[in-house]
Amino acid sequence: MIRTVKPKNARSKRAxxxxxxxxxxxxxxxxxxPGATSNKALHDISVDLSALKKPxxxxxxxxxxxxxxxxxxxxxxxxxxxxxxxxxxxxxxxxRKNNLTFVRTFGYKIFDMxxxxxxxxxxxxxxxxxxxxxxxxxxxxxxxxxxFESHPVYKHVKSLFLDFFRGETTDLxxxxxxxxxxxxxxxxxxEGQPLPLVNFRVYTLKTFKSGQKVPRVELNEIGPRLDxxxxxxxxxxxxMLKEALKKPRQLEAxxxxxxxxxxxxxxxxxVHVGKQDLNKMQTRKMKGLKKRFDQVGEDFDDPxxxxxxxxxxxxx
Length: 316
Hints:
Layout: H1 10-19, E1 30-34, H2 40-53, E2 57-59, H3 73-82, E3 86-91, E4 99-106, E5 109-118, E6 140-144, H4 147-150, H5 152-164, E7 180-186, E8 198-208, E9 216-221, E10 226-234, H6 238-244, E11 259-261, E12 267-269
Parallel strand pairs: 1-2, 1-3, 6-7
Antiparallel strand pairs: 3-4, 4-5, 5-10, 7-8, 8-9, 8-10, 11-12
């Protein structure tokens, strides 16, 4: 572990303060680490993946002897040393060729890991027509296949890629910023593989006039084109998962008593009053409501109006 050092100047003090927990966390930075058995193909794939993640990336140039499923202490050291919560380790062996291990950390401890083995039919950015997008824009995502909602491993894959390319959290929405889309599809399973492949595709958006209110949209593939086979994976422990999903009290929505929101979105308030005794209500402020003007009693009756005068006797 890294020993804690008291900051000696303002620069180191700001650096330590930036590492502290915040109500709204910083953008997650990805660290690309080449393993001792990494090759040129994995290097090129890592460069293309880091191009999609820019500018929130760091890359190691030297190879490192790391075996994450046997001993993850080195990755935890790299995470704390470089202040990164996403790590991509590239290794290759006869049993697991062109293997990318995606690691997420929480509090500089390993949260979860999954191995994605790249098949030999991959294509890089340089194999497509040169069509790029602005750096730092957030991509749109499509997940094609029911397994991304039902199978726990593919739920892990979906959560991983959404977390990897999430970028900065903001409420600003600009249509001009929707320039590329990442499509992830559950493909067919290879022979001897129990789980289907994961097809990774990247497209740019182009809009054209359609003569209607909505423009015509076309997708152009720009790469990289990667087909992943699922390898080993490690899920987070229940205690760490509970701690990671905990929200600070300052960000929790406070419930206001007796105020609800209906389907339309209007606020409805409820007022509670005590029991009222109407017999004790003061209603005799007006002259017409005085007690002597009360029209109650046995002698009171509505007047009878005859067609003839009252002093005329009726004829027999």
